[in-house]
Amino acid sequence: MPFHYLIFIIHLSQLLKKVIFAFSLLIITYFMAIDSIIALEGVSVYQRDNLILSDVSLNIHKSEFVYLVGKTGTGKSSLMKTLYADLPLKEGKAEVAGFSIPDLKHKEIPFLRRKIGIVFQDFQLLNDRSVNDNLIFVMKATGWKDEDAMRHRMNEVLDKVGLITKGFKMPHQLSGGEQQRVSIARSLINDPALLLADEPTGNLDPETSDGIMQLLFDISRSGRAVFMATHNYALLRKYPSRIIKCENGKLVEVGEGLIGIGEE
Ligand SMILES: Nc1ncnc2c1ncn2[C@@H]1O[C@H](COP(=O)(O)OP(=O)(O)OP(=O)(O)O)[C@@H](O)[C@H]1O
Ligand SMILES: [Mg+2]
Questions:
Q1: pTM > 0.85: yes or no
Q2: What is the distance in A from the centroid of ligand 2 to the CA of 230?
Q3: Residue 74 has what DSSP assignment?
């Protein structure tokens, strides 16, 4: 074989390697992008005219469980509210559960909220009606019509949170932990891609909090993303996962350990 022909083949094989490498990168990036449930880039979080967090970049994928920590008043709830379009987004790019937040029109907000389950510290159940009626209320408000389908879904989500026998009870007849389970059941009704939980264990004792954490981890393993704001470092120790912190007006990635948040 002539020498220049051999050189040509070597060059060609090197070029081929580079093309294959670039192509694989493209495929990986593509799959990461379609797997991404929260994708923020250069986002600013405001409360009225006050800048709370600036230059926020964050990616959260399917099945991920991510903690959001930070001292009181550093912007955890404000960031969550920006994600579910309760606070306007003035700067940056934000894709949440397939919706582009800056382009979202006011009338499209309910469609975004259907893709997001939201769980609060104080449960926010309707106290004038039973657990079942709390769930049916949300279904009707989000466009469900078929009574049988509603009953079926209601039982499915109550079963998931271990409350199948308590649907007839009024919220005040339940313990705090049970009420939080109802609020998690409510958040799951429309099969959301993302669960935002703002201090979900804030009002619960350690043992009850454990049960809620196990439930939230189960939910993330079933293909959803869970993003949970918390002050409870004991839970972070017991259920380690990725941690993000609000600090000095920025969002910083801490990793999985508590060293980065100055606790150990
Ligand atoms: N409705 C509001 N109007 C104006 N400013 C607000 C409002 N809600 C919160 N803020 C301000 O925004 C900043 C961030 O508050 P945020 O509630 O996001 O903090 P946080 O990290 O969730 O605190 P915590 O741990 O106490 O829940 C604080 O300075 C707070 O005073
Ligand atoms: Mg808060």
A1: yes
A2: 8
A3: S
